[in-house]
Amino acid sequence: MVKDQLTQIYTQNELSCMATYSIKAVYHKLMGEQSAVTWDKIVWNRLSIPKHRFILWLAMQSKLQTTAKLAQYGISQSDMCLICADAKEDHKHLFFACSYSKECLKQFKEWTSITSASTDLQQLIRNIQNGRRSKFQKQILLVGLAALVYLVWNSRNSSYWQQSIPSVNYVVKHLKAHTKARIWAVLPKKLSTKDYQWFNEL
Questions:
Q1: Are 134 and 142 a contacting pair, CB within 8 Å?
Q2: Total structural domains within the chain
Q3: The pLDDT of residue 32 is above 60
Q4: Does 108 share its domain with 194?
Q5: 73 domain residue, yes or no
Q6: Element (DSSP H or E) covering residue 41
Q7: SS (HEC) of 164-195
Q8: Is there a single domain that holds both residue 47 and residue 142?
Q9: What are the b/e assignments for 160-198, b being 16+ CB within 10 Å?
Q10: What is the mean pLDDT of the chain?
Q11: Considering the domain boundaries, does residue 83 fall inside one?
């Protein structure tokens, strides 16, 4: 009975004071205090390629089916990284502690002049978000980072399904191409000369 379940989470006094039943109120009561998500607007950056957004969204929540997760479920016999085979393949490792993804990230930073030394995905996003660049430039960096996460995940899947791993140069080349092609296709009409020149020179 619903009434019996409600008495498990509400006191009798709380129930008697509830003028009307609210699904929202009961849901929040069941879930308890939740930390606010601060990266949702960043992940769903309209300039990003949709499939890149989706993979980044999963990565930010540690929802990708890594070998570490599959091994935990008993689906995979190994939890080792399918790219470098040097450590357990979890989200922290893939983005970007793995020697392969770390080198991809290094070249991405060199291309975009990101000075942050961090190799942690969430910290990188915070650093970009809090940086002194223009809103447009921050959006471009996040488009590139989303593309990088997607391409690293794609390389990991290629290792599993095709038993081949694209070179770092291949990943970085496609990262640049995807980012530039996407932005040229959806370039904002109102853009400062400085931002236009910065992007054009990337």
A1: no
A2: 2
A3: no
A4: yes
A5: no
A6: helix 40-43
A7: CCCCHHHHHHHHHHHHHHHHHHCCCCCCCHHH
A8: yes
A9: eeeeebbebeebbebbbebbbebbeeeeeeeeeeebeeb
A10: 88
A11: no
Omega before 95 cis (within 30°)? no
The answer as to whether 75 is a domain residue is no
Both 24 and 104 in one domain: the answer is no
Q: Rounded distance, CA 72 to CA 66, Å?
A: 10
Question: Using an 8 Å Cβ cutoff, are 95 and 59 in contact?
Answer: yes
* Average pLDDT over every residue of 168-172: 98
More confident residue, 58 or 5: 58
* Residue 80 within a domain: no
Q: Which residues contact 114 (CB under 8 A, 6 or more apart)?
A: 108, 124, 127, 128, 141
Judgement on whether residues 146 and 187 belong to the same structural domain of the protein: yes
Quote the CA–CA distance of 44 and 91 in Å, as a whole number.
20
pLDDT above 90 covers a percentage of the chain that reads 73
pLDDT of residue 34: 52
In this structure, are 130 and 166 located in the same domain?
A: yes
What confidence category does residue 46 fall into, taking pLDDT thresholds of 50, 70 and 90?
confident
Q: Are 146 and 47 in contact (CB under 8 A)?
A: no
d(CA 89, CA 159): 13
What domain range is 114 assigned to?
40-62+98-200
* 173 and 141 fall within a common domain: yes
User: Cβ distance 186 to 46 under 8 Å?
Assistant: yes
